[in-house]
Amino acid sequence: MISSEPFISPLLTERLELRLMSPADAPALHAYYSRPDVCRYLLFEPRDLATVTEKVAAHAAHTILAEDGDYLDLAVIRRSDGALVGDVILKLTHADQLTGEIGWGFHPDFHGTGYATEAATAMLAHAFGSLGFRRIVAELDPRNEASAALCRRLGMRREALLVENLFSKGEWGDTAVYALLAREFSTIAR
User: Fold this and answer.
1) Phi/psi at 168 (nearest 5 deg)?
2) 73 vs 60: CA distance, rounded Å
3) Beta-bridge partners for 101
4) What is the pairing mode between strands 16-20 and 157-168?
5) In the prediction, which pLDDT does 45 show?
6) I want to staple 110 with a disulfide (CB 3.0 to 4.6 A). Which of 12, 85, 98, 126 is the partner?
């Protein structure tokens, strides 16, 4: 059973803090979710500040993973200066199967720093550890080589390529599915 305790304490890594979002995070999130290069492989177009502000309020209200569709979207904060560098999401997809989905978004200014790997690893450790997930998947556009490479760094294996399964932004697109089991995560040297 997935733990349905509210998420309260931030997740800390050597360089990062993953915490619930607050309204003050909207401008930093807007700085990258308003960019066409960031949204290229996402299911939505670049967003204006008002839309990002609404989304941040919704994300901040999600603190419990109890039912299918519940999620945590955590702000990724650089501990050295408090800069918001990205966000990592964990969604409960099948409670009865102890299965979830992970996703992420990072400002391009912070690409190549290892922050995405560090943050996603912390989220996976939380998911497989205190939350009790058995399996985590990541679904992404296979043209998004940066996210595919991150999946591989996390120890995830590519399990499927769904061909033209999704109509988005005026075209049919493919979906690559990566996955990791709790027992596999526990054997990966971190």
Assistant:
1) -150, 140
2) 8
3) 91, 137
4) unpaired
5) 96
6) 85
Name every residue whose Cβ is closer than 8 Å to that of residue 53 and which is 6 or more positions away in sequence. Answer: 23, 26, 30
Cβ neighbourhood burial of 155 (10 Å; 0-12, 13-18, 19+): middle
Cα dist. 7→25, 39, 62, 130, 139 in Å?
A: 18, 28, 9, 11, 24
Contacts for 172 with CB less than 8 Å, ≥ 6 apart: 164, 166
Candidate from 6-10, 48-52, 97-101 with smallest mean pLDDT:
6-10
> Mean pLDDT in the chain?
95
To the nearest 10°, report the CA torsion of 55, 85, 152, 146.
80
| Identity of the amino acid at 150 | L
- Structural domains of the chain, ranges and CATH numbers in brackets: 11-139 (3.40.630.30)
pLDDT 10s digits, 144-176: 999 999 999 999 999 999 999 999 999 999 999
pLDDT band, residue 189 (cuts 50/70/90): very low
